[in-house]
Amino acid sequence: MSYATIQVRPVTPRLGAEISNIDLTSTLSNQQVDDLHSALAEHQVLFFRDQKLSLDQQKTLGRHFGELHIHPNTPGPQGHPEILPIHADANSKRVAGEGWHSDVSCDTEPPLGSILYLHTVPPAGGDTIFASQHAAYEALSPAFRSFLDGLTATHSGDRSYRRTNRILGIDDRDRVFPQAVHPVVRTHPVTKRKALFVNEGFTTHINELSEKESRAVLDFLFEHSTKPAFQVRFRWQPHSVAFWDNRAVQHIAMWDYFPQVRSGSRVTIKGDRPI
Ligand code: SIN
Fold it and tell me: Among 9, 65, 84, 168, which residue carries the largest CB count within 10 Å?
């Protein structure tokens, strides 16, 4: 694929591309937005360097791709409800995204994508790892793919968000977190490629199977879908940005840098009901 305004260098043949020749702090032209949309569909996660974004600029960037999502558990800073703070330091007891997941897949209409900006990174570590759920699906045998194609799974925010709140000492007894039923295999609305859509963070069971069958199939899928063969690993620098497609990848944040500081912010773009 060729792009009119940006340079795109694939990081692996399966997913991930470094994007240059663009300034994300300025308002983008329609052609730039189209090019980024196409690159995201082709490469599933895009990486940018040296983009010193303010919170307002990051929100403007996100709004080029859709309405911004407000996180169901973690509040944004004063005046910025659409911002999800991402921060860890010597006082942290947990970090966001420590397990494999697709962002907020427990929503009825899970987010299309997320744009993470980090201004402060540890001297080593703190990488984010992404796994292509297209590649994971396509690597399965035709018979197993057909079996999965007809199934649905329940995704719930309960376990993940209540664990966070318990660790942070937040009383969430009166809170109700999102829960939704999605197909186990979804079709990407832009590329029409199929992708696995279950993850350890939010998927609790496969609805059409017995409890034991569901456990066995999910355990297999959680392991299969995050294999190194389907991964790309992003090494952050100060002022790097990663823009990923939650319909196509899962990701995990490595917390291997305690007690160093890693800090920034995420905006999340609303998506559609998976089909
Ligand atoms: C997340 O959005 O899940 C956090 C990712 C990261 O901090 O690398």
Answer: 84
Check the CA dihedral 130-133-134-135 and report its sign.
positive
- What is the mean pLDDT of the segment spanning 68-74? 95
**Beta strands 231-234 and 240-245: pairing type?**
unpaired
Rounded to the nearest 5 degrees, what angle is found at the Cα of 175, between the Cα atoms of 218 and 87? 75
Angle at Cα 212 formed by Cα 206 and Cα 217, nearest 5°?
50
Q: b/e string for 207-225 if b means 16 or more Cβ within 10 A?
A: eeeeeeebeebbeebbebb
pLDDT digits (tens, 9 = 90+) for 153-198: 999 999 999 999 999 999 999 999 999 999 999 999 999 999 999 9
- In DSSP terms, 47 is beta-bridged to 18, 242
- Distance, CA of 200 to CA of 219 (rounded, Å): 9
Q: From the alpha carbon of 236, which atom of ligand 1 is closest?
A: 8
Give the tens place of pLDDT for each residue, 97-112.
999 999 999 999 999 9
Q: Which of 128, 236, 254, 257 to mutate to test the pocket of ligand 1 (most atoms within 8 A of CB)?
A: 128
Secondary structure (3-state) at 214: helix
Which helix (H) or strand (E) segment is 20 a member of? Answer: strand 17-20
| Cα separations in angstroms, 91 against 101, 103, 154, 204, 205 | 24, 25, 34, 31, 35
User: Cα of 8 to ligand 1 centre, how many Å?
Assistant: 23
86, β-bridge pairs: 264
